Amino acid sequence: MNTRLIRVGNSQGIVLPKKLLQQYHLVGEVDLQPTPEGLLIKPVGKARRQGWDERFQHALAQGQAPEGELLEGFSDEAFEETQWQW
Question: What superkingdom does the record give (predicted)?
Fold first, then answer.
């Protein structure tokens, strides 16, 4: 696919077709990486743990209690009775 460079202030840019933007999930900020073949344009990945708070709140609203279920059913009574010492 060919496109033209266009003047944007003192710089130049390109217009990317909507179909390409959707196909490669390019929204807002993008990552530009120079390569020997040219310029690679990639979507910026989500920050780690982004959205965790919303998913946690949704789980609570659905009646889940992650803290209570974390160790549910976990017990090693034999270890506690024979090997654990204070």
Answer: Bacteria
**Residues pairing with 76 in the sheet:** none
Domain range enclosing 50: 1-65
- Rounded distance between C-alpha atoms, residue 86 and residue 54, angstroms: 40
Cross-strand bridge partners of residue 32: 41
pLDDT tens digits, 12-56: 999 999 999 999 889 888 999 999 999 999 988 766 677 888 888
Alpha-carbon span 67 to 84, nearest angstrom: 24
pLDDT digits (tens, 9 = 90+) for 54-83: 888 888 888 877 665 566 666 667 777 777
Which residues pair with residue 35 across a beta bridge? Answer: 38
List the structure tokens of 79. 């270890």
CATH code of the domain in which 8 resides: 2.10.260
Q: Which residues pair with 42 in a beta bridge?
A: 31
Look at the pTM and tell me if it is higher than 0.85.
Answer: no
